């Protein structure tokens, strides 16, 4: 598969280019708004060509698919242009700045017969696959509650627009809450009905929230609590799922690396759960390529991206208004 990188980004450089190549992909082109940056990025990462014009990139008949990792406010227009040009799309989260735009993107790809996926990496981790197996196998019994804690410190080289630019989609809710929303959906197999939330600017955020806590009402009655932050240097991350027969306690698993520890606590004692240490992104790319070949579906498809965005948007509105907010999934 010949890939176009829409966005000369850190995540593409650090994680995705290697994963795309591991899946047999060729780095055909890269797009940046700066022609100089595009050329420099292409030279440093072995990309065949550099572009600063989206139409020029997409007009290339040799291009098969695009990976979009620009700032959030650009995703919609870029994805729609790629779909119109007949390219398969792997898009970073959140898909768009509104649920309605995300729905438009996904439906356009479906109508065009193209594969559209959301790059929700955590559901590809061996740790989260193992946790999901514990839930689905019934070892926890009836699930009573889930707590996800993803309060970390955003390193300086990733701050920029994420901490000071609401117009670009900055803030911890579109950056991390949206990932946790997908992770909760992945483990529980259901979507929240409504949420309550509080957010704050606790020192790092300038015009955007840098910490948020929320509680979600699930259709089954399971209680969900989520905590995300850019400002917690020493908190660690993880997820806990508690059921009538046992609890799973996972530490340091909300990460791009295949690391962490999982314990299953049941009446008979505590069991350490082993899990695969495969590359998260390589698994996602492999499933995407399979879907393009007509075999299966992406790890997280466009509808998964719509749902995670809808939950994050409801958390943002609940925090802003101080009221319980229903989650609007845009009619999907």
TrEMBL record:
GFO/IDH/MocA-like oxidoreductase domain sequence ranges: 129-248
Matching SUPFAM superfamilies: Glyceraldehyde-3-phosphate dehydrogenase-like, C-terminal domain, NAD(P)-binding Rossmann-fold domains
Residues spanning the membrane: none
Superkingdom, taxonomy of origin: Bacteria
Signal peptide: none
GO molecular-function terms, A-Z: nucleotide binding; oxidoreductase activity
Segments forming domain Gfo/Idh/MocA-like oxidoreductase N-terminal: 1-120
Entry keywords, A to Z: Oxidoreductase
UniProt similarity note: Belongs to the Gfo/Idh/MocA family.
Listed name of the protein: Fructose reductase
Organism: Paracoccus tegillarcae
